[in-house]
Amino acid sequence: MGSVPTSASHFAALPTAPRDEIFALLGEFRRDTHPQRVNLGAGVYCDNDGEPFPLDVVRTVEKSMNEKADPHRHDYTPIEGDQEFLALARKFVFGDACDESRLTSVQTVSGSGANHVGARFLANTIRPRRVWLSAPTWANHELIWATVGVPVHFYPYYNAETRALDFAAMVETLEKEAEANDVIVLHACAHNPTGLDPTKEQWIVLGELCQRKGIFPFFDNAYQGFASGDPSIDAWAIRHFAQLQPPIEMCVAQSFSKNLGLYGHRAGAFHVVATGEGCTPAAKDAVTANLAQIIRSEYSVSPRYGSDIVKAVLGNKDLTRKWQAELHTMAGRIIAMRVCLYEELRRLGTPGSWTHIIDQIGMFSYTGLTPPEVTYLKEKFHIYIHSSGRISIAGLNTKNVKYVAAAIHAVRSDPSLVTSA
Ligand code: LMR
């Protein structure tokens, strides 16, 4: 006889799961009605009024899409994605650095989707013994790789004492412990959360290391154009790896959330660079087919509104030029805000060294603020910051930077708080 059904819920003893801190913080900020509240949590670009910044070029495209009202605009995309979008996205990442014959791409639910589909694909196919993530990294990397069942290891990256990249420790660990067929996740530019990128010389060392040891590079490319304002400069590392001789296999998760401000539309792609013996057109087709099977089982097809916008921008020279000018403006405002915050903290004589704020690059600064300081800033000043001390510089503007600096000064000067200064 089978067991007798009871009325107890299957979920009665379900342990809870940790909430994603970045999105939880965003929710808290949105519910806060304090007039001076400041959101330095999620990496979302805002203008100098703290408002969302729909790019002009995106508005132009949306207007013409609305006028055109193509009856096919709500159609499904193919499972692998819109081929025209993918060709343009590929070109944007790789430029002329990689022969098309080596590349396979699928459309994804932006960068997280690309990271996840890519992780699942590599877990199923090359079956790595471990994945190497930077310490620290974007929290979702760890979650994604744990979800696909690949043991996560960390390579040293950030040195809290010097507030700088510890490249020697990174290389030493990888030399000693990484093995052939391991995967290494690398942030293509604007490292999240530290804002510290390897130099070109250091990228060259990493490329040689991956090549010599047979480590599989997995680039996360979420900020192309945001670090320097120039998408080709920000793609340097990826293009260098793609041009290594003898060539290596690698992959890239690409997002258009930040650089085109398409956060909620989830436009992205996953690219595989295949090479070597047996890399026939049939093998490449098998890569696409396997990726398509993962996509089909998880969400069927990718959303198309954002990718239609990307396609319109990248497919038109004039719009691409306008976009690049806007990218320059966004990157420039972020760089200017770094300087403002730094200068204000210095002017106030805030305890601690703050030069790292101007030395770091991209959307984030890893400030060195401690968890108690972060809590204090939220509770007393309504300033929302990730508990790691990462601040999104894009949330600063000429109207709130003095307020934020004064709050940091107050927290650092409060003897009741243990600080890391
Ligand atoms: C961030 O790190 O704040 C962004 O990439 C948003 C996200 O998806 O976590």
Automatic annotation (TrEMBL):
Miscellaneous section:
In eukaryotes there are cytoplasmic, mitochondrial and chloroplastic isozymes.
Catalytic activity reported: L-aspartate + 2-oxoglutarate = oxaloacetate + L-glutamate
Give the enzyme's EC designation: 2.6.1.1
- Species, as recorded: Sporothrix stenoceras
The residue ranges of the Aminotransferase class I/classII large domain are 38-408
The record's comment on protein family reads:
Belongs to the class-I pyridoxal-phosphate-dependent aminotransferase family.
Q: Which InterPro entries match?
A: Aminotransferase_I/II_large, Asp_trans, NHTrfase_class1_PyrdxlP-BS, PyrdxlP-dep_Trfase, PyrdxlP-dep_Trfase_major, PyrdxlP-dep_Trfase_small
SUPFAM superfamilies (UniProt xref): PLP-dependent transferases
The UniProt keyword set, sorted, is:
Aminotransferase, Pyridoxal phosphate, Transferase
User: Known Pfam families for this protein?
Assistant: Aminotran_1_2 (PF00155)
What this protein is called in its record is: Aspartate aminotransferase
